[in-house]
Every structure is written in structure tokens, then in C-alpha cells.
Amino acid sequence: MRSDEIQAEKLVEEYTALAPAYDRRWSAYLDASLHMTLEKVAGLPAGRVLDVACGTGRLLEMLAERADVPQLVGIDRVPAMLIVARQRIGQRATLLECDASQLPFDDASFQLVTSTNALHYFLDADAALREIRRVISPHGNLVITDWCRNYVWMRLLNRILPWTRHAHVHTFSITELEQSLARAGFNINRKSRRKIDWFWGLMTVHATPVRGIRGWSLSPIRGLRDIHTSCTKSRSHKPLPQVAPTSCSLKPLPQAAPTSCSYKP
Ligand SMILES: C[S@@+](CC[C@H](N)C(=O)[O-])C[C@H]1O[C@@H](n2cnc3c(N)ncnc32)[C@H](O)[C@@H]1O
Questions:
Q1: Which atom of ligand 1 is nearest to the CA of 53?
Q2: pTM of the prediction?
Q3: How far apart, in Å, are the Cα atoms of 35 and each of 84, 184, 204, 246?
């Protein structure tokens, strides 16, 4: 088995076991980290919202309170987490099982994308950020909160966890996150980092797509110089009637189950 497959299995194993107790076990941590995220999201226009690695759906539930959110979508790799999210959020959000680096949505589908406490699990964070860049609209907003390696305990954790059976991959420093976002085609608007208690040090970054001439987006994959070929053209601005997964169909969901999506690139 390839090492990325082993890592992916570890993630599913770890979070399948954790799912039923996740909210209770991490409640203080979650309150603080989601609050940090909401501080950044508060002044931003919402619209169609995607929460990447939504876990048990706590942030989705908070975002569902907003009047300017016509459609909420959460994706996660682990079905057990999505089952808890479904119980929490009912039919107020669409939930999909898929990987952050292979999002089954059309280009420019979302006005706001969030991701909390998950970046350090992504096997290929650059690929995930590129996917987010692809599905976010040219005038959209991205808010990411995660552990921050600028803090000493987070640095230690980053060293220790690879030696355990934990699915952790890599804890970013704030500069690394900025660089990764820049490679994916984002500008950093605001960033902050904070210790939420004696142990946990977190960071939150608000980023927006890099825009070229006349407000067009520049494709992160082809690089910033190639303005003519890399503009996402008019389809980026096309209003979509619904968030449309490109490779899996959204079926009416049974109350307690996430939609399973065997998306292949
Ligand atoms: C610590 S939990 C955070 C959940 C939620 N965002 C929160 O703040 O409570 C990490 C979540 O990331 C998900 N995850 C990790 N890697 C992923 C990936 N590559 N694609 C989608 N979800 C992923 C896990 O399944 C888990 O639900």
C-alpha cells in the first residue's frame, strides 16, 4: 500500500473512532477556534458557502444562522464525522464525502470558503488550496484557521505526532500558509495568530483570489504571468442556479447519512 493510502486510512480510522465523542472531547478548543474563524468571517458577504473538512458541522451550524447564506455545503473525508454533522444540521446543508484536493464542484461555485482545524491533515495542502481556488468565485473570500507552528508547543506536536499512529501530516507556520496560499493564487488580506490557552496556538488567515486586469481571476496553476490564457473567463461570473457537483450526483439524503461521492479526477 502506498504511504498516502496508509495515511488516508489512518485518518478514516482515527476520526471514525473519534466522531461520536469529538464535540464533547474538544468543546473548549472548538469554541475558541471557531470563534476566531467567525471573527474573520463576520464582516464578509456570504452567499454560497463551502466548509472544507467540515467534521461534525459545528461551523456550518453557526453559518446557517446568517440570513445571507442561501446555500451551505460541507465536505469531509470521513463518513462518521458527516453522520454527526447531518444529525446536527439536518437539511440546512448539503454534505458530501470527498477529499479536499478533489472537490466535485464547478469552477467559481462559492462566494465564501472556510476550513478550520484541518489543514494539518491534508496530504497535499497545495493541491487542496488550488482546488479551493478553483471553486471560489473571483470576488470570493477564504478563511482558514489551523494550528500554528510559530508556537513552541505546536512545533513540538509537529515533531511528535508523526511518531504516533495519529493521522497528522504537517503543521504550518503562518509564513508557510501564506506561501502556500500565494502559490494557489490567493492574496492575504488579514492574518492573526493567538494562543487560546497555555497549549494551543492557532492562526487565522483571510485570503482572496488574486485578480488581474479588469478584475479577472488569474489561474494559480498556469502562473500569474500568463494573463490571457489563465483568466477564468466569463464562466467565473456565471451565476449558478445551484451548487453542482461535477462528478457525483446529489440525491435526496436519508436524514442520518452523508452523500457518498466516489469522485475521480
Ligand atoms: C480536527 S477535525 C476539524 C473538523 C471541523 N472543521 C472543526 O473545526 O471542528 C479535522 C477534519 O478534517 C477532515 N479531513 C482531514 N483531511 C481531509 C481531506 N483531505 N479531505 C477532507 N477532509 C479531511 C477529517 O475527516 C476531520 O473531520
A1: 22
A2: 0.85
A3: 20, 26, 11, 32
Q: Rounded CA gap, 3 and 186, in Å? A: 29
> Which residues, including other chains, have CB under 8 Å from residue 139's CB and lie 6 or more apart?
111, 208, 209, 215
- How many Å separate Cα 163 from the centre of its chain? 26
CA separation, residue 163 to residues 169, 196, 216 (Å): 11, 25, 45
| Residues counted in the chain | 265
For domain 3-209+241-260, the CATH superfamily is: Vaccinia Virus protein VP39 (3.40.50.150)
- Residue reference for cell 480510522: 13
| Mean pLDDT, contiguous 10-residue spans, the chain (265 residues) | 81 95 96 96 94 98 92 97 98 97 97 98 97 97 97 95 87 97 97 96 98 57 30 30 39 41 34
Task: Choose which residue among 16, 97, 119, 121 to substitute to test ligand 1 binding: the one with the highest number of ligand atoms within 8 A of its C-beta.
Answer: 121
Ligand 1 pocket member 76 (CB < 6 A): yes
Q: How far, in Å, CA of 185 to CA of 192, rounded?
A: 20
Q: Which residues contact 164 (CB under 8 A, 6 or more apart)?
A: none
